[in-house]
Design goal:
By secondary structure, this protein is of the alpha/beta class. The chain is about 40% helix and about 20% strand. It has a single domain, classed as 3-Layer(aba) Sandwich (Glutaredoxin), CATH 3.40.30. The protein has six helices and nine strands, in the order ααβββββαβαβαββα.
C-alpha cells in the first residue's frame, strides 16, 4: 500500500515536472524566423524606422531585440510563448518608479504562478544605469535593456512617451492592454484572467 502511494506521487510529480520543463524549453529557445512568420509576428528589423506607426490595442506584437544582464541578445518572442499573458514594463533608471515598482512587485507575486510572465525593458542608454537600478529597486521579474532609449524604434513602436509604461500581451501575442499603471494592473489582470 505504501509503495503504491509512493509510485502515484512519484509519477504525478514527474508529469508536473515534465510540463514545467516543456514550458521552460519553449521559453528558453529563440523562435526561428519561420516560426514567427507562421505566427504572424513581424520583427522590428523588418520595419522602416522612418514610417513606424505605434501599435494599438488589438494589434499583434512586433518582436524586438533586447540585451540581457549578461549582455546577450535576446528577443521578446522568446518570452511570449507558453504564458496566458505577458506583462511588459518599459522603464528607465531615472523614472519616478519607486511607488510603481512597489505595487508592481505585489502584482508580480500575485500573478506569476497564474500563467503571467513579467518582463522589464529598460530604455536606459547606458548599461550600468539600468543594471544598478535593477539592483537598487530589487526587481524580481526578468530584466532586459533596449539601449536605443526613449527616442529609439522600440519606444516609438510601443508608443512609450513616458516611463514607466506597461503593456499586456495575450497568449496569441495580441496587445490586450497598454499604458496601464501598477494601480490598474491588478484590475486589468483580474478581468483578463476571468475570461
Amino acid at each position: 500500500m505504501i509503495v503504491l502511494v509512493f509510485v502515484i506521487i512519484f509519477f504525478t510529480s514527474c508529469n508536473s515536472c515534465s510540463e514545467k520543463k516543456d514550458s521552460l524549453d519553449r521559453e528558453s529557445k529563440e523562435p526561428s524566423q519561420e516560426e514567427l512568420k507562421d505566427e504572424g509576428v513581424k520583427n522590428i528589423d523588418s520595419i522602416n524606422q522612418a514610417t513606424i506607426k505605434p501599435l494599438q490595442k488589438g494589434d499583434k506584437y512586433v518582436n524586438i531585440n533586447m540585451h540581457s544582464k549578461q549582455n546577450k541578445k535576446i528577443t521578446l518572442a522568446r518570452f511570449c510563448r507558453g504564458h496566458k499573458y505577458t506583462v511588459v514594463i518599459f522603464w528607465t533608471s531615472w523614472c519616478d518608479c519607486v511607488d510603481e515598482f512597489h505595487k508592481m512587485k505585489d502584482d508580480y507575486r500575485l500573478y506569476k504562478d497564474r500563467g503571467v510572465e513579467f518582463l522589464g525593458v529598460s530604455l536606459d542608454e547606458k548599461e550600468d544605469l539600468w543594471q544598478n537600478a535593477v539592483h537598487q529597486y530589487n526587481l524580481p521579474w526578468k530584466q532586459f535593456s533596449d539601449p536605443e532609449g526613449l527616442t529609439g524604434p522600440v519606444a516609438q513602436l510601443y508608443d512609450v512617451n513616458k516611463v514607466p509604461y506597461t503593456i499586456v500581451l495575450d497568449a496569441d501575442g495580441n496587445i490586450v492592454a497598454k499604458g496601464i499603471t501598477a494601480q490598474t494592473l491588478d484590475e486589468e489582470m483580474n478581468k483578463l484572467l476571468s475570461r
